[in-house]
Amino acid sequence: MEIDTGQCVHCGLCLPACPTYVETGLEAESPRGRVLLLERLEENPELMNDAAAMFLDDCLGCRACEEVCPAHVPTAHMVEEWRAKEAYWPDEVGPEGFAVFRRISGPLSFFFGSARGLAWFQRLVRWSHWPVIGQWVSHLRFVPESARTLSEGLPHRVPKSLSRIRRGNPPAAPTDKAMLFVGCIMDTIYAETNHHTQDLLQLGEVEVVVPQRQRCCGALHKHGGAPEVARRWAQENIMAFEESGASTVVVNAAGCGAMMKEYSNLFEKEDPWYARACRLEEAVVDATAYLASLPLPDGAPQGAEITVHDPCHLAHGQGIRQEPRQLLKRAGYHIQEMPDSDLCCGSAGIYNLTHPAMAQSLQKRKVESVPEGIGQVAAANPGCLMHIQAGLRKQSGTVEAVHPVDLVWEAYHRQGVV
Ligand code: SF4
Ligand code: SF4
Question: Is 135 inside any structural domain?
Fold first, then answer.
């Protein structure tokens, strides 16, 4: 996508939707301000300086502005394009976020680029809980200071193996064959959620395949400014899908789902990969939306009330809001809505590493929105889960952030259905 700011009519409808504008009240930190800045920089590139770069780089890529914009200005996508052009400024130059991204993009490629790398990542995360080794892990050269606060949101028990196994028995007369996309953070830290997703799919009469070949979706690299890595990994996932024989790709991480639904943007239209990416895009479904469409049983009423956080890349990126609620209600949960449930929690991929101050302000706003008496916050994205959990532990220590699939699985498990 080229940077084309021409459609903006400067109406300002996007301002109240933008988390960085809501936090700062600054026009330069709003979508309209960023569009204007991009326009000026297109005309006069010499105007670029650290302040301009910071205002642009502060964008979370949450896409709330794109959803409300009457002129369909793709602000988040344009900022991403700009970042891809600028992210490799020479060391010591540019906003702090660039420096952090340069520092972690190599390790990210190593850890998330293969199953072996993911197993190492999982091991390091598990070790980070241990008293002495944890200190060593948190002081590894590539671990930014900001990762230490993020680690406060890790689950107490990190799984010991990846989630790439097929478990349970396939249904006798399946209505669909689905490839489970396991992800990177989901495959390691939240591996159990992938297992629970499989169980629920099979309960809904769907045959599940879990290809070993698949990789991280590439969203962290694409949003950070390294689309060439995302392109390579997208090709691996397209091949994994084609070889799987599945007609559906189920994704339980909102950020991955939104990324995979736009894989064709990574390729030129003349490139043969473009048509293959389009076929994958059509097959991708969010796990909560797909499960809500399956014939799952009604659950018994659950005791504690829950609330729902809408991850940006589910609500704004995929237009999915009601389906996770329908699924949870069918399993027996009572939902008490939180205000601004679709305002970004500040996690935004690696934003909480590259922009810790803004990420923590938004985290505080999010946990303060959780209504009194709530036991769990449902969030269908691993970054949100970890970031909101870190904020909840700082605040009270009792409320848990849980993936909706886990909540539904637990409800059915208590009934002995799974
Ligand atoms: S980006 Fe869209 S919503 Fe925002 S000021 Fe421009 S036209 Fe209006
Ligand atoms: S993507 Fe989000 S943070 Fe960026 S300008 Fe739009 S609303 Fe603001």
Answer: no
